């Protein structure tokens, strides 16, 4: 194992996450996901491991190893896909374009419908995603259809759609329910796809209570069953479909080194339209007396905000690139 990676690999957690191999100039060579970061990353540098020409060439160019810990393999899949799409690493063959992603599309038709698509082509529709596991999203949509039956017709029809007969559409297409009732269900589906399952559970619970109060126990039982279905199949899954927001998160971890220096690891996460598209982390160090934790934090933030004010940079991503170059 190369000496420069020994300490990094030694301290890798045995947790799911995404790792990045970088060249000497900080360019991403490869992005990968792992169920166990320590085992996966160390396997690249094990003596005697069979290596093809492409892998050998990639390993010879690695100068830095970075990683991001997540809470599940599903999160690792999503983050890996976003990073590959954004960074376009040289040695990643797959997932370099949107053809590998699946989105949930909710249309803006007279009767809003829900579809799966591999591309965003309609600016009037609402999209959730991307998903890298096709089977998972198909299961989620099938379950949502049983909880909140929705229609595939774009506008009212003289005959009920095929889903009415199998009780997966309540008949909005032929006027068997009001548009207000239908749009309320669509809103609940959006809440689930946004990860707000607790709000949806409260809404279902309120429907159970109201139905029981008026003596409609059959309807109350129906809402009860749908709440149980939500609990058992969706609410317990961690669906990574956040709101479409642009956020830059800066995290600092400060430790004392063996040489009595303050070492700060600055971790920057760039979230665009609700998806983590890039991560940067680098080190700052200083003497114990003159450069404590608070000073390190102020040093970074002061330079960032002054750069923004002077219009030298407009994003955290640009600032981090400049900052890295200056620190080298």
Provide a descriptive summary of the structure in words:
The protein has 328 residues and is α+β, with helices and mostly antiparallel strands. It folds into three domains: 3-96, GIY-YIG endonuclease; 100-235, no CATH class; 247-327, no CATH class. Helices cover 41% and strands 21% of the residues. It is built from ten helices and nine strands. The chain has helices at 3-10, 37-43, 53-61, 73-87, 134-147, 179-193, 197-213, 217-235, 293-309, 316-327; strands at 17-22, 28-34, 64-69, 102-106, 114-117, 126-131, 247-256, 261-272, 275-287. Strands 2-1-3 form a three-stranded antiparallel sheet. It has a three-stranded antiparallel sheet with strand order 5-4-6. The protein has a three-stranded antiparallel sheet with strand order 7-8-9. Strand 4 (102-106) and strand 5 form a beta hairpin. Helix 5 (134-147) runs antiparallel to helix 8 and helix 7 packs antiparallel against helix 8 (217-235). The two termini are 25 Å apart. Residues 95-99, 237-242 and 308-320 have low confidence and may be disordered.
- What number of domains? 3
- Please give the count of helices: 10
The radius of gyration is 25 Å
Helix content: 40-55%
Beta-strand level of the residues, as a percent range?
A: 15-25%
- Determine the structural class based on helices, strands and strand pairing: alpha+beta
| Main sheet characteristics | 3 strands, antiparallel
Number of strands: 9
Low-confidence stretches: 95-99, 237-242, 308-320
Q: What sort of overall outline do the alpha carbons produce when their principal axes are compared?
A: elongated
Secondary-structure element sequence? HEEHHEHEEEHHHHEEEHH
Distance between the termini: 25 Å
| Biggest sheet, spatial arrangement of strands | 2-1-3
Task: Give the integer mean of the pLDDT values.
Answer: 77
């Amino acid at each position: 194992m190369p000496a420069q990676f020994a300490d990094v690999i030694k301290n890798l957690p045995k947790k799911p996450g995404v790792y990045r191999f970088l060249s000497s100039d900080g360019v991403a060579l490869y992005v990968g996901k792992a169920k166990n970061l320590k085992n996966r990353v160390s396997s690249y540098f094990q003596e005697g491991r069979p290596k093809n020409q492409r892998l050998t060439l990639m390993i010879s160019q690695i100068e830095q190893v970075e990683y991001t810990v997540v809470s599940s393999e599903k999160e690792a899949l999503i983050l890996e896909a976003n990073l590959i799409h954004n960074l376009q690493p040289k040695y990643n063959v797959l997932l370099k374009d949107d053809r590998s992603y699946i989105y949930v599309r909710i249309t803006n038709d007279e009767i809003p419908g829900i579809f799966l698509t591999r591309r965003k082509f309609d600016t009037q529709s609402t999209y959730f995603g991307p998903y890298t596991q096709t089977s998972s999203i198909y299961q989620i949509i099938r379950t949502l259809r049983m909880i909140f039956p929705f229609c595939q017709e774009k506008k009212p029809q003289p005959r009920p759609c095929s889903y009415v007969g199998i009780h997966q559409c309540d008949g909005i297409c032929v006027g068997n329910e009001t548009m207000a009732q239908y749009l309320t269900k669509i809103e609940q589906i959006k809440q689930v796809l946004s990860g707000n399952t607790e709000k949806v559970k409260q809404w279902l619970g309120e429907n159970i209570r109201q139905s029981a109060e008026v003596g409609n126990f059959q309807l109350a039982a129906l809402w009860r069953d749908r709440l149980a279905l939500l609990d058992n199949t969706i609410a317990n899954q961690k669906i990574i479909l956040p709101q479409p927001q642009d956020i830059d998160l800066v995290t600092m971890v400060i430790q004392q080194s063996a040489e009595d220096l303050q070492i700060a690891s600055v971790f920057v996460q760039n979230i665009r339209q609700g998806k983590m598209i890039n991560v940067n982390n680098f080190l700052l160090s200083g003497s114990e007396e003159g450069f404590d934790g608070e000073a390190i934090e102020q040093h970074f933030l002061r330079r960032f905000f002054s750069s923004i004010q002077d219009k030298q940079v407009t994003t955290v991503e640009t600032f981090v690139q400049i900052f890295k170059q200056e620190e080298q």
